[in-house]
Design brief:
By secondary structure, the protein is α+β, with helices and mostly antiparallel strands. Helices cover 49% and strands 19% of the residues. The protein has two domains: 19-109, Roll (SH3 type barrels); 142-210. A hairpin with a 2-residue loop joins strand 5 (66-71) and strand 6.
């Protein structure tokens, strides 16, 4: 009876423990998978996990499309779509489909805090971040803002060029329609003249017979 009470108490304690206190689930990669410094393809890739590599999943973004993992002592983000559960009950099931059942927590991401916690010793860290004296959190280098501005400008230019192409195509189509209309008018005029010539010939023949 005492053992049963202890077991029930242990289960109850497990239900109220926060996600960080529970054992992080293990998973493996289903393909060679890039590990990045953040949850997007735009973040820096610093290594590649080979297919079948075992990782510890600490949490994922909403939708479980990007997950925070540890692999070979490295901490980073990978695409959750290429992770499969390594446990027994849901063995080899994709993490996004079983994440809720196996207790993968939904977490957020702050690049400044995360990078400072795990990558402050990396050679690119100083180049990417500048510390403000009056703020606790670092901010991204201005080069990123300039790069994004150029990309936005190029995208707008491409849209304008596509709009010009559409306008030119419409103008050509209207011109072709006008040309086609003139050809039809000329054909009608030619048919009318032929009919008049035929009627004149018939009138001339009648006059000769008379």
């Amino acid at each position: 009876m005492l053992k049963k009470i202890v077991a029930i108490a242990a289960v109850a304690a497990g239900l109220v423990l926060p996600g960080s206190a529970l054992a992080a689930p293990l998973a493996f990669t289903t393909t060679d998978l890039n590990i990045r410094t953040g949850p997007a393809a735009s973040y820096q890739r610093f290594d590649t996990i080979p297919e079948g590599g075992r990782v510890t999943v600490h949490g994922c973004l909403t939708g479980y499309n990007w997950c925070d993992v540890t692999w070979a002592g490295e901490r980073g983000w990978v695409s959750g779509n290429y992770l499969a559960y390594a446990g027994e009950r849901y063995a080899r099931q994709p993490i996004p489909s079983v994440a809720f059942s196996i207790g993968v927590p939904v977490i957020g991401f702050d690049p400044g805090i995360y990078h400072r916690r795990y990558y402050v010793d990396r050679p690119w860290y100083r180049d990417r971040y500048l510390e403000r004296r009056w703020a606790r959190e670092p901010y991204f280098d201005r080069r990123d803002a300039f790069r994004e501005h150029r990309e936005l400008r190029d995208a707008r230019r491409a849209v304008r060029e596509e709009q010009r192409d559409v306008f030119d195509a419409r103008r050509d189509l209207q011109r072709e329609r006008r040309v086609g209309g003139n050809v039809r008018d000329e054909r009608r005029q030619l048919q009318r003249e032929r009919r008049e010539l035929l009627e004149a010939r018939q009138e001339l023949r009648r006059e000769r017979r008379d």
